[in-house]
Amino acid sequence: MPQTAAIEVKNLRFRWRKALPEVLRIETLEVARGERIFIRGASGSGKSTLLALLAGVNLPTGGEVNILGEAINRLSSARRDHYRSDHIGFIFQLFNLIPYLSVLDNVTLPCRFSRSRKERATASATSLQDEAMRLLAHLDMADEDLIDRPVTELSVGQQQRVATARALIGAPEIIIADEPTSALDSDMRQAFLRLLFQECEETGSTLLFVSHDRQLESLFERHIALDEINRLGRGEA
Ligand SMILES: Nc1ncnc2c1ncn2[C@@H]1O[C@H](COP(=O)(O)OP(=O)(O)OP(=O)(O)O)[C@@H](O)[C@H]1O
Ligand SMILES: [Mg+2]
Predict the structure, then answer these.
(1) Residue 1 within any structural domain of the chain
(2) Hey, which end of the chain has fewer CB within 10 Å, N or C?
(3) pLDDT of 1 above 70
(4) Which residue's CA is the nearest one to ligand 1's atom 14?
(5) pLDDT tens for residues 86-115?
(6) How far is the CA of 46 from the centre of ligand 1 (A)?
(7) Separation of CA 156 from chain center
(8) Å from CA of 43 to ligand 2 middle
(9) Residues of the domain holding 78
(10) Domain for residue 38, yes or no?
(11) Three-class SS of 18-52
């Protein structure tokens, strides 16, 4: 049997509230497993909105969002949360780290919600903490002094790296990254992308990467301009 696509979107429509105009109208979008995709679009064009729909954080106003063959828009809110924990690592534009937890506890958090991610994280490492440390070390964040700190005491670039290790732990099939490099310097940006690509390569994960940084675009095999797939972006509303 052929494998289902990582992501398949059909006739997607979205508006934030009834009184507001539609933000997105996308007829089809298909992403194969293992693809690495760069998504660009002007500020306010709906990139973060689209990612939240793909992750089942929000529900579409119309149409279907299939993730690994599951129509997540038909799942209950609790099952959507569970499905997301199992299959999607999300690096949010504003990180969403848990302020009262340490760096290490933030990174291992998805494994508290998802048994499958915990199993995968510990399959290759002696403990969950060791796997978290391996990822943090790749991002130059394994300093003894850093890992036990509350995340509120980190710089923005450091928080971005913690959010990345948290998305990668337990090898979810899909990694979604919303502007993950905006607060990193150019050396760190390269290291960051190397880690992201290496981890995705090793686990066969699909990567969706949103950025304004056109310099990074050439490193990706497929590019999507949101304005080109969003019919509302071309004045066809
Ligand atoms: N919670 C919300 N309620 C109502 N409207 C919203 C909400 N969040 C975003 N919007 C609107 O939806 C549209 C798309 O916003 P979105 O955050 O997806 O843009 P973006 O492409 O990610 O922009 P940026 O590059 O600045 O992050 C904008 O017009 C924005 O004002
Ligand atoms: Mg955004």
Answers:
(1) no
(2) N
(3) no
(4) 46
(5) 999 999 877 788 999 999 999 999 999 999
(6) 6
(7) 18
(8) 7
(9) 7-234
(10) yes
(11) CCCCCCEEEEEEEECCCCEEEEECCCCCCHHHHHH
